[in-house]
Amino acid sequence: MKTKRILFGLLLCIGLSTVSCSSDDNEGETLIPLEGKWNLSKTGTVVGGTETLIDAPQNQSGCDRDYLQLKLDNTATIGDYDSTVSACALTTQTGIYSRSHNNLTISITGGASTTQDIVNLTLSELKLRDASGKITVYTR
């Protein structure tokens, strides 16, 4: 009887240690998908260790908000509403994007390529920060 208890205890310990050990290859990377349409919400910077965000001045009053659309096929569309020529005229730029851990790189066709850190990614918010410290917040 004592041998059965020892054997059971040993098997239980081995089983629990096997279940509790796991390999985390994500190194802090969030697994929430980036795909979808993200509306520009706020912009800002970090000054003296304090993050300061304001409503995005790029968004034209009375128009839909500017946006970033990321698709499953790794294409990206940046939408910009501007009332300079006509009311709420939409201009789009297209390109591709890639994600490497918590970095998002967007390459616009015929334009520049930008890499930003993904500071926060939830189902409803995407917060990015570039190398100069500029913060851009998008919401769904």
Automatic annotation (TrEMBL):
One Pfam family for this entry, by name?
Answer: Lipocalin_4
Check the record and name the InterPro entries matching this protein. Answer: Lipocalin-like (IPR024311)
Q: Which UniProt keywords are present, listed alphabetically? A: Signal
- Indicate the segments forming the Lipocalin-like domain, all copies: 34-128
Ion transport as UniProt keyword: no
Q: Which residues form the signal peptide?
A: 1-22
Q: Does the keyword Signal apply?
A: yes
What's the superkingdom here? Bacteria
**Would you tell me the protein name for this molecule?**
Lipocalin-like domain-containing protein
Organism (species): Flavobacterium resistens
